[in-house]
Amino acid sequence: MVWGVGLRRGVERFCPECGQVLVAGRARCGPCFRRVENERRMCTERAYYRRVCGVGFRPWWLYPEDYEGQGK
Ligand SMILES: [Zn+2]
Predict the structure, then answer these.
(1) Is residue 31 part of a domain?
(2) 9 CA to middle of ligand 1, Å?
(3) What pLDDT, on a 0 to 100 scale, did the predictor assign at position 68?
């Protein structure tokens, strides 16, 4: 018997974002994983541009929330 296998059987894990049951070995479900990855990547990009271009540099493609609700 391999240690851990018996213990894990029947223990379902859930996505911390939406509560969906997960595939074994995954930390999040597919949609949430992609969303979190995207946010993480955006955080990295924001930090980079803030360092290079200054705090006032907020283009729409990096800070879409800044431009929401401003007419088209
Ligand atoms: Zn999810």
Answers:
(1) yes
(2) 21
(3) 85
Rounded to whole angstroms, the Cα distance separating 17 from 33 reads 9
Mean pLDDT confidence for 23-48? 92
The type of residue at 13 is R
Total structural domains within the chain: 1
Quick check: 29 and 15 in contact, CB under 8 A? yes
Instruction: Determine the distance separating the centroid of ligand 1 and the alpha carbon of 24, expressed in angstroms.
Output: 14
- Domain residues for the domain of 21 are 5-67
pTM over the 0.70 mark:
no
Cα(53) to centroid(ligand 1), Å: 34
Nearest to 35 by CA among 55, 13, 15, 5: 15
- Residue pair 21/12 in contact by the 8 Å Cβ criterion: yes
